[in-house]
Structures are given as C-alpha cells and as structure tokens.
Amino acid sequence: MEESVYNPISLEKAYTLLNGGGLLWICTKSKEGRYDLAPIAWACPLDYEPVTKFLFVCDPGHATFENVVNQREFIAALPTYKQKDLVLKTGSVSGRSYEKFSQWRISYMKGTVVDAWVPKGVAGWLECKVLEIYRPSSVAIVCGETLAAFALPNAWKQVLHHVEGEHFYQPGDRV
Fold first, then answer.
1. DSSP string, 104-115
2. H/E element holding 128?
3. Highest CATH level, class, for 21-169
4. What is the pLDDT of residues 68-123, one digit of tens each?
5. DSSP letter assigned to residue 120
6. CB–CB of 141/133 below 8 Å?
7. pTM of the full predicted structure?
8. Cα(first)–Cα(last) distance of the chain, in Å?
9. Hey, which residues does 128 pair with through a beta bridge?
10. Measuring CA to CA, which residue among 47, 42, 59 is closest to residue 128?
11. Residue 175 pLDDT grade (very low, low, confident, very high; cuts 50, 70, 90)
12. Are strands 35-40 and 24-29 parallel, antiparallel or unpaired?
C-alpha cells in the first residue's frame, strides 16, 4: 500500500481547507436608502426546523454590517460562476463610497418581503430577518431566519464557491 504525502499548511491559511461553501452576496439597504451588496465567503446553515436559519461572518467595520444592524434584515443571494467578475468588483469597494448597483449597471429584482435588491441572474436567494448578532473578537456573526426563498431548479450546480483571493470553483455533478 502506497503511503500518502501530506504537506504542511500555514496556520493562517488552514481556513482554506474549510472554505468550501457557496459564496453569498449579502444585499442590504442603508439608513440613507442606498441599496448595497457585498460578497461574503464564510456562511453556513444553523438550523432547518421550522424554517432555515443560517449564519455568516462579517467585518463589523463594513457598510454591510452597519446596514444589517440598522435594518435588522438582509437578502442572501447566491451568485453563479458566471458572475465571478462582478463578485470581485463588488467586493473591491465599500458601499459607503460607491453605489454598486449603478456603478456596474447591475440589473436587479426587488425582495418580496425584505427591502433589498437581488442581482438578476443569481442561482437563488433567501430573504431574512436578523435573529442575533455575536461579536467575538474582531468579527461579527450574523444569524438570520429565512422569511422567503427562491431558486433556479438546478441552483446547486451554479453557485460560486470561494477558497481565497481569486481562487473560485463551481461544483460538479452530484454522485
């Protein structure tokens, strides 16, 4: 039997082994009425009964976090692999300084119960209210409860996954 060779991974890059979930755009509205979206790579399910609950990790200094705190609602949209370049653009500037939807002429749909805009062409989205926010260390963990959800029939095949930097992938067919 052949022995496998494992390479050491630096501790600051160990998260890349865990960062395999679908990327989200957290879509919000500011107190001033500016619609915004920000890519978030760290998210996971929290519960599913009686409805889906999930969490995402956010920098408390970002406009997205401020909007979530003030509005107590958000939309989690799942960009597709085809939207990778737009994800990079929307993550490169602050929603405090840029009107991202107009800056990149992003077509959108309005949320059905949450006052936020969803970029057209996403694989799906969840409209959520904030349940709780935790502030461990220098990050914030936002827990949301789904109020409405929509998806393309094959959404799971189209979602964009982020490892780090500009390293993305799209899931293959399920076995």
1. TT--EEE-SSSS
2. strand 124-134
3. mainly beta
4. 999 999 999 999 989 999 999 999 999 888 899 999 999 999 999 999 999 999 99
5. T
6. yes
7. 0.88
8. 27
9. 74, 146
10. 47
11. very low
12. antiparallel
Map tokens 């957290």 to a residue.
26
HSE toward the beta carbon, residue 130, CA cutoff 13 A: 19
Are the C-beta atoms of 76 and 142 separated by less than 8 Å?
Answer: no
Give the C-alpha distances (Å, rounded to integers) separating 13 from 6, 9, 18, 102, 140: 15, 7, 10, 35, 20
Calpha distance 23→9 (Å, rounded): 23
Query: What does the domain layout of the chain look like in residue ranges?
Result: 21-169
86/88 Cα distance (integer angstroms): 5
Alpha carbons 15 and 155: distance in angstroms, whole number: 25
Non-local (6+) Cβ contacts of 48 within 8 A are none
